[in-house]
Amino acid sequence: RDGPWTLHVPDMGQRYFSFQFLDAWTEVFGYVARRTGDSKGGDYLIVGPDWAGIPPKTMKIFRAATNDVWVLGRTLVDDESDLPEVTKLQDQFGLKKYAAD
After folding, report:
1. Structural contact between residues 52 and 11, judged by C-beta atoms closer than 8 angstroms
2. How many other C-beta atoms are found inside a 10 Å radius of the C-beta of residue 70?
3. What long-range pairs does 60-64 form, CB within 8 A, spacing at least 24?
4. Which of 34, 44, 64, 71 is spaced 20 to 30 Å from 92 by Cα?
């Protein structure tokens, strides 16, 4: 509600991952995922319906129909020996309030 927010995703290589964005009514309004070509990672801007700012050209913008949103993340873990690598990737995920420069 107190947004907009920036989601940071590191380079995920060939690993399956997804972040699903849902509004307050649980309607999906976007994805960041391997299958959508986002494996190289980056920063993604999540905004509400009334936000009128200008996003940086380097960020993909996702506009929700409501000011409250859910972000659901998934990352594939192949087996127990894969946990340290997944933990390193997850430590690089970030969600922070957007501040225009």
Report:
1. no
2. 12
3. 60/32, 62/21, 62/29, 62/30, 63/29, 64/21, 64/23, 64/29
4. 64
42-47 and 5-9 beta bridge pairing: antiparallel
Looking at residue 79, its amino acid is D
CA proximity to 50, closest of 39, 64, 37:
64
Kindly write down the DSSP assignment for every residue of the chain, as one continuous string.
Answer: ----EEEEE---TT--EEEEEEETT--EEEEEEGGGT-TT-EEEEEE-TT------TTSEEEE-SSS-EEEEEEE---SGGGHHHHHHHHTT-EEEE----
pLDDT given at position 24 = 95
Tokens of 46: 């999540």
pLDDT, one tens digit per residue, over 20-78 is 999 999 999 999 999 888 889 999 999 999 999 888 898 999 999 999 999 999 999 99
